[in-house]
Amino acid sequence: MRKPIYLFSFIAVLAACLPAKQDESSSEQKQDTTAVVSDASAANQLTDQQKAEGWKLLFNGQNMEGWRNFKGIENNSWEVVDGTLHCKPKDQADKRGDIMTADQYANFELAFQWKIAAQANSGVIYRATEEFDRPYLSGPEYQLIDDTGYPGELKPAQKTGSNYDMHAAPADKQLNPAGEWNDTRIVVNGNHVEHWLNGAKLVEYEFGSPEWKKLKEGSKWKDAKGYGMAQSGHVDLQDHGGEVWFKNIMIKTL
Questions:
Q1: pTM of the model
Q2: Residues 6+ apart with CB under 8 A from 114
Q3: How far apart (Å, rounded) are the C-alpha atoms in residues 203 and 132?
Q4: Taking residues 49-68, what's their average pLDDT?
């Protein structure tokens, strides 16, 4: 009779030492949740290094402070959702329009993350003014579009990363597809401009150069006398009727 008692005691001790499977699963779930919360809280914030380098957040992830409607035109197409500035799809808003920074910038480096819905079209216009009926009649546009899914034919200078209808981004650029995040930088310093996408420079040009003037004469802007003329202006997010998201929007003056 003593052997069964010893065996039973050994099994009981061993069982007591092993963690319950349910507790282990619960612990893993807590760790995963903590990681997600940590990632979310890191969005739309500056690191100490970025602050030291002079970066400033343009979007706080919670509301539209620092942004306003172009020319005060009423729209209901923009909202803040899940820490992003979101432009609603066409069927979810009946009053559409661009939004722009309250402040104006002359020489700067602008950085942001964005993703676009399938078949959608948008853009970021810089040095935009309110002198004309539309922001793009004053400021150049960093094109954002679903390169492969957009309905209709696109010229090279109308694809993502291009200076819209002026300077074409390379065909072999690294572009994450519709629904996935991309990183963009725009550098404007005097007459010099650079467009970057996912760590690579796509476009480089000079305002007022012979090349720039020639391209303008052959573009949609040939009769837009104010196009590219402003020495400073707003950063404008374009509502082109398609769905697009922005986050981690920051700027550094040069």
A1: 0.84
A2: 122, 144, 181, 182, 184, 244, 245, 246, 247
A3: 26
A4: 97
Task: Report residue 41 as tokens.
Answer: 């809280």
Q: How far apart are CA 240 and CA 187, in angstroms?
A: 23
The 10s digit of each residue's pLDDT in 141-188 is: 999 999 999 998 999 999 999 999 999 999 999 999 999 999 999 999
Which contacts of 220-229 are long-range, i.e. CB under 8 A and separated by 24 or more positions? Answer: 220/165, 221/137, 221/165, 221/166, 224/132, 224/137, 226/129, 226/131, 226/132, 226/137, 226/138, 227/136, 227/137, 227/138, 227/139, 227/140, 228/127, 228/138, 228/139, 228/140, 229/138
Q: How far is 163 from 141, CA to CA, in rounded Å?
A: 6
Q: For 208-221, what is each residue's pLDDT tens digit?
A: 999 999 999 999 99
Closest CA to 184 of 194, 197, 174: 197
CA distances from 50 to 58, 181, 238, 250 (A): 13, 21, 27, 10
